[in-house]
């Protein structure tokens, strides 16, 4: 059951306003490459938004701006109404990178304690949250083992645990199921659905269109830095033969042909 | 993913609505610093250098050279030289890898996605490295004090503490300079090597640059003079001779002056590192 109060109130949690991201081109010196062009997007409270696009479409560049890794060339982006240029904008978010690498000399427990301290979570609450998230990602049995002894799947689960340590209102997930086995993928999907039911907002990029269809309320497809399609999953499925993959291939295919 | 815990049994929230917490910048800096200290404690660098220093010093202490009682001065000199070399190696190697390895291992991304500014990250790394080398120095000077105390039957604790304090202040400049280097040079190995050469150069040649400049034609003379005034004079903090010969304490005023000098240079290097780091794109 979804938390009605959280879903029904249309409150933008994430807002991207005419965003442009440009980099110096790697191929030819002196040229500027436009990674994102005039992107505007709003994700409301309680929504699960799927951010799709082929490789090099500008998804990661957009996420880099949202997370404050690089400044926008033009335009701005806001988290909870605060510009992403402000450090405080990231107080209520959880981020899971595509490839998770953590301090290998620390244990899962120590790494979560470290991140809890960064968020200013009091010790007693932090210990409670550490127990909770470690149980959730099923790493409770390995909590005192150094991360260097973990398998890839276990490291990905530590990533998910650290993304949840501050009980975030917005989760930014960059291909959260990449590198996981089918059971691990199912578990991550369950967690995303669970977060949605609790009224959390999730913004995630993925190449797994079936997964997107299952968990997302809305999707946006980015091609060459421009938002080509944006809408509710149910509407898009109705318009495009009940298959998100078909729609994606059409857009990407048209673009490749052009 | 065995022993699957039913999702319904583990609520994601601890109790009630999410509580808004906010840490102070100092607490974020300290959190980052503790990770650095923990890293040094779990790596072998310090233990190897400490054991090596202890082995060489204890071996020398056990040898009776021509029945000379004053040989203990040479022993102290060698032990202090080993401590200086070891501390510089630990400080530079530990600091040089901090930022580059954060980027290489991609641990920088989950960290910067938290409410941590790049300035706080740098400050945390500085405090962590400086505290960590401070702990190493404490072990080294305790060993030195014990060894020379046993051999000489005298315990000038204040002189040892003062020497350690000055040594630690000098290392603050080295750590901040290495941190600046790690922003400029991407690879930890190249940064470490360059900083070891630069620090060694400053220690051996830094104080003689003005004499060298006199004999040089222009514009070399101005350039070398400029270097003499710009480079931090690490040798000012070297009071090994005082300890070796038992010449007592340095008066308080020069010590305070030296500490202020070290603080100014460290702040300058950190400000430059922060300025450059804030302008550096970190792309996933």
Quick recap:
The complex is a heterodimer of chains A (258) and B (284). Chain A has 258 residues and is an alpha/beta fold. Chain A has helices spanning 4-8, 59-66, 108-119, 123-136, 152-164, 182-197, 209-215, 233-239, 244-257; strands at 12-24, 32-44, 48-52, 74-79, 82-83, 93-96, 170-174, 201-205, 218-223, 226-232.
N-C termini distance of chain B: 28 Å
Count the DSSP helices of chain A: 9
Strand residue percentage of chain A: 25-35%
- How would you sum up the global shape of chain B? globular
SSE string of chain A: HEEEHEEEHHHEHEHEEHH
Strand proportion of chain B, as a percent range, falls in under 5%
Oligomer: heterodimer
- Total beta strands of chain A: 10
**Percent helix range of chain B:** over 70%
Largest sheet of chain B: none
Q: Mean pLDDT across all residues of chain A, rounded?
A: 85
Q: Poorly predicted ranges of chain A (pLDDT <50, ≥5 residues)?
A: 1-8
C-alpha-based Rg of chain A, rounded: 19 Å
Low-confidence parts of chain B: 1-12, 14-19
Quick one: biggest sheet of chain A?
A: 6 strands, mixed
Number of domain units of chain B: 1
Order of strands in the sheet with most strands of chain A: 6-7-8-3-9-10
Largest interface: chains, residues each: A-B, 63 and 45 residues
User: Would you report the number of β strands of chain B?
Assistant: 0
């Amino acid at each position: 059951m979804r938390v009605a109060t959280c879903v029904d109130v249309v409150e933008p949690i994430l807002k991207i306003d005419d965003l442009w991201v440009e980099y110096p081109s790697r191929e030819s010196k002196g040229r500027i490459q436009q990674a994102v062009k005039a992107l505007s997007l709003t994700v409301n409270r309680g929504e699960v938004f799927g951010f799709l696009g082929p490789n090099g479409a500008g998804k990661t560049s957009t996420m880099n701006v949202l997370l404050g890794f690089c400044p926008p060339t033009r335009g701005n982006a806001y988290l909870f109404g605060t510009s992403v240029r402000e450090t405080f904008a990231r107080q209520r978010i959880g981020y899971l990178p595509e490839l998770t690498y953590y301090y290998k000399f620390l244990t899962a427990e120590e790494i979560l304690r470290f991140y809890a301290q960064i968020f200013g979570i009091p010790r007693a609450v932090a210990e409670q949250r550490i127990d909770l998230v470690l149980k959730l990602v099923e790493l409770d049995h390995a909590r005192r083992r150094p991360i260097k002894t973990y398998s890839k799947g276990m490291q990905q689960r530590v990533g998910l645990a650290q993304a949840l340590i501050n009980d975030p209102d917005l989760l930014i997930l960059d291909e959260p199921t990449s590198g996981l086995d089918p059971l691990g993928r199912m578990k991550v999907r369950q967690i995303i659905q669970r977060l949605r039911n609790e009224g959390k907002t999730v913004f995630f990029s993925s190449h797994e269109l079936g997964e997107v269809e299952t968990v997302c309320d809305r999707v946006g497809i980015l091609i060459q830095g421009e938002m080509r399609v944006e809408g509710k999953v149910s509407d898009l499925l109705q318009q495009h033969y009940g298959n998100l993959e078909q729609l994606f291939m059409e857009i990407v295919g048209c673009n490749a042909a052009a | 993913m065995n022993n699957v815990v039913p999702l319904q049994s583990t609520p994601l929230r601890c109790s009630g609505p999410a509580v808004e917490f906010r840490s102070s910048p100092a607490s974020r800096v300290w959190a980052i610093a503790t990770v650095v200290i923990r890293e040094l404690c779990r790596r072998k660098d310090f233990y190897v250098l400490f054991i090596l220093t202890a082995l060489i010093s204890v071996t020398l202490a056990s040898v009776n050279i021509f029945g000379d009682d004053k040989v203990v001065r040479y022993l102290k000199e060698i032990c202090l030289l080993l401590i200086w070399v070891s501390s510089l190696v630990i400080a530079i190697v530990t600091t040089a890898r901090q930022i580059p390895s954060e980027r290489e291992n991609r641990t920088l991304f989950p960290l910067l996605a938290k409410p941590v500014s790049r300035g706080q990250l740098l400050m945390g790394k500085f405090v962590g490295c400086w505290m960590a080398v401070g702990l190493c120095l404490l072990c080294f000077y305790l060993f030195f004090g014990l060894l020379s105390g046993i051999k000489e039957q005298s315990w000038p604790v204040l002189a040892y503490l003062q020497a350690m304090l000055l040594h630690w202040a000098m290392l603050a400049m080295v750590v901040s300079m290495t941190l600046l280097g790690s922003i400029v040079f991407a690879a930890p190995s190249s940064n470490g090597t360059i900083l070891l050469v630069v620090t060694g150069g400053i220690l051996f040649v830094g104080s003689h640059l003005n004499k060298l400049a006199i004999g040089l034609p222009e514009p070399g003379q101005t350039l070398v003079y400029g270097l003499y005034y710009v480079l931090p004079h690490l040798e000012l903090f070297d009071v090994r001779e005082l300890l070796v010969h038992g010449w007592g304490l340095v008066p308080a005023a020069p010590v305070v002056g030296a500490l202020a000098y070290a603080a100014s240079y460290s702040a300058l290097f950190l400000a430059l590192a922060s300025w450059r780091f804030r302008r550096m794109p970190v792309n996933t």
